[in-house]
Design a protein that fits this description.
There is one protein chain. This protein is mainly beta and about 190 residues long. The protein has one domain. It is about 5% helix and about 35% strand. The chain has one helix and twelve strands; from the N terminus they run βββββββαβββββ. It has a six-stranded mixed β-sheet, with no helix packed on it. The longest helix is centred in the middle third of the chain and has 10 residues. It starts with about 25 loop residues before the first strand and ends in a 16-residue tail after the last strand. The mean pLDDT is about 90.
Length: about 190
């Protein structure tokens, strides 16, 4: 029970008239294979110097990549991306599962190739929420994987043509907020062509 003696006691004020944007940026979505990462930061733990409720969910150090490696950038369809955190398990033994649901429009070669190649690759994703916070799905210790994928050509002119993807992790912790730098791959591939 000693871990409970160091729990922070802090007020959690809310501002009723504060504008809180929902959704994610359609252009600021980053992904990588965990095998490209050299060093992955960790959040502060209860009892460590400087620990607060805020620090419990913040990765303040950079994700450091191996030479010539980095994140690749993705574009998702407007108003289709969502970062979700769910708690599961029994009382007294709750753990978090984090998910990033998004839709990639167009069943072009690049998008279908992404699913084909990365469907079983352990990944880390960083997603910019419209609040301005970068959220991390997956870690080196507990990577994110494609959970569900459904591609469709659509049936008619009012339907979307593209791929609905859910990527999830089971780190056990709420998807942290990343305050480090985003390192992009040095030789970014050209955008896919239809």
């Amino acid at each position: 029970m000693s871990e409970f003696k160091d729990l922070p006691i802090e007020n959690l004020p809310q501002y009723v008239n504060e504008d809180i944007a929902s959704g994610v940026s359609e252009t600021q979505v980053f992904a990588c294979s965990v095998y490209d990462i050299d060093t992955f930061p960790e959040t502060l733990k209860i009892g460590e110097a400087g620990f607060t409720l805020d620090k419990a969910v913040v990765l303040s150090d950079d994700i450091v990549f191996k030479t010539d490696r980095g994140f690749f950038q993705m574009t998702v369809q407007t108003e289709t991306g969502e970062v979700k955190n769910e708690l599961g398990g029994n009382k007294g033994n709750k753990k978090a599962k984090n998910m990033f649901d998004f839709y990639v429009s167009n069943n072009n070669k690049g998008n279908l190739g992404f699913v084909q190649i990365y469907r079983n690759v352990p990944m880390v994703m960083v997603v910019l929420e419209n609040t301005g916070r970068h959220r991390v799905i997956g870690s080196v210790k507990s990577p994110a994987y494609m959970d569900t994928v459904a591609a469709t050509s659509g049936k008619g002119p009012d339907d979307d043509n593209g791929i609905q993807i859910t990527i999830s992790d089971s780190t056990g912790n709420i998807a942290p907020i990343y305050e480090g730098n985003i390192t992009l791959i040095t030789d970014a591939p050209a955008p896919p062509t239809p």
